[in-house]
């Protein structure tokens, strides 16, 4: 029989694992979503439409239109009591109207994912030095780190996008780079958006990490110095590995925020999911169907990000370090 501490730790770890596996419907939804995306991208980008013509949906609309028509007629014949059947008919009408635009929106999802992943990943490499400077730096470095953080957290991301795109030479510089705007490589507006998201995300991530570093007992760094490590090595090898684990919940929030904030890139002509949805809706006047469909795609991306971060948190967890029962 284990000690109370080991028993509690065992319950904690099992609880963390259950958080990932006790969501079969969510897991199934995410699996279907990513299977469709990967097959779609493979067909359109790698195989150049070998499986099915590009911008042509994998799913025919005729069966959904037929079901919608049948249920609509049934709802009309039932009179006032037929409204539940009418709702179901409306759902099939929504599917029939939305399916033809899935291929174009899948291309927008690709841009949204790239913006999000590059923004948060590149921002991390700025955030770590900023957070370390705030916690362990001298007065000058703390002031610089604080100034950066407050500047980018205190101004709207949309304003930052506009300044970088319209008021700096970034656009002209990136446009002249080779391969930009060809094949898989997005055009210059995309890369300006990545830079804006990187700078903005770094400010928020630095605060998550700073809070996490403050959660590590001061004695950890003292002990590292006592065994001969320098201050920098103690922070790198002892404090950061613990602190970054505490910061994972904050990163989960930042990843979700960036997925949704990526829609702001449409204001500088980046053709991500929101921009493509708006463009198609302006041509077809199917605003309701298309924006509901876009919302569902954003929701699938957020669910994917949440499950990914839960998995990462579980994989890097150390028994007894920052664990809580669920």
From TrEMBL:
PROSITE patterns in the record: ABC_TM1
Its localization reads: Cell membrane
Lineage, top-rank taxon, reads Archaea
Q: How does it sit in the membrane?
A: Multi-pass membrane protein
What does the UniProt keyword field contain?
A: Amino-acid transport, Cell membrane, Membrane, Transmembrane, Transmembrane helix, Transport
Q: Is Coiled coil among the key words of this record?
A: no
Predominant localisation class: membrane
CDD domains xref list: TM_PBP2
Which positions, given as ranges, span the membrane? 108-136, 157-174, 180-200, 290-309
GO molecular function terms listed in the Swiss-Prot or TrEMBL record: transmembrane transporter activity
- Entry similarity comment: Belongs to the binding-protein-dependent transport system permease family.
Q: What is this protein called?
A: Amino acid ABC transporter permease
Please name the source species. Answer: Haloarcula vallismortis ATCC 29715
């Amino acid at each position: 029989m284990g000690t109370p501490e080991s028993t509690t730790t065992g319950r904690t770890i099992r609880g963390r694992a259950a958080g990932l596996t006790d969501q079969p419907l969510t897991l199934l939804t995410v699996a279907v979503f990513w299977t469709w995306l990967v097959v779609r991208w493979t067909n359109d980008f790698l195989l150049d439409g070998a499986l099915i013509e590009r911008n042509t949906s994998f799913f025919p609309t005729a069966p959904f239109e037929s079901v919608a028509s049948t249920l609509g007629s049934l709802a009309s014949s039932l009179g006032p009591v037929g409204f539940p059947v009418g709702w179901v008919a409306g759902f099939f009408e929504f599917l029939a109207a939305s399916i033809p635009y899935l291929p174009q929106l899948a291309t927008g999802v690709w841009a949204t994912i790239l913006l999000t992943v590059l923004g948060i990943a590149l921002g991390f490499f700025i955030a770590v030095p900023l957070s370390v400077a705030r916690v362990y730096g001298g007065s000058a470095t703390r002031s610089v780190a604080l100034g950066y953080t407050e500047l980018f957290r205190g101004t709207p991301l949309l304003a930052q996008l506009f300044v970088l795109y319209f008021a700096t030479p970034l656009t002209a510089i990136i446009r002249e780079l080779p391969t930009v705007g060809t094949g898989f490589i997005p055009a210059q507006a995309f890369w300006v958006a990545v830079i804006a998201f990187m700078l903005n995300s770094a400010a928020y991530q630095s605060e998550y990490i700073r809070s996490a570093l403050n959660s590590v007992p001061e004695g950890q760094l003292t002990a590292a110095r006592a065994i001969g490590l320098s201050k920098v090595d103690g922070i790198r090898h002892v404090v950061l590995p613990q602190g970054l684990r505490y910061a994972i919940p904050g990163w989960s929030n930042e990843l979700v925020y960036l997925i949704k904030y990526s829609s702001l890139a449409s204001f500088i002509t980046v053709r991500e999911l929101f921009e493509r949805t708006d463009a198609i809706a302006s041509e077809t006047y199917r605003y309701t169907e298309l924006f509901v469909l876009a919302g569902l795609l954003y929701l699938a991306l957020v669910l994917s990000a949440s499950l990914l971060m839960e998995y990462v948190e579980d994989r890097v967890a150390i028994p007894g370090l920052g664990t809580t029962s669920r």
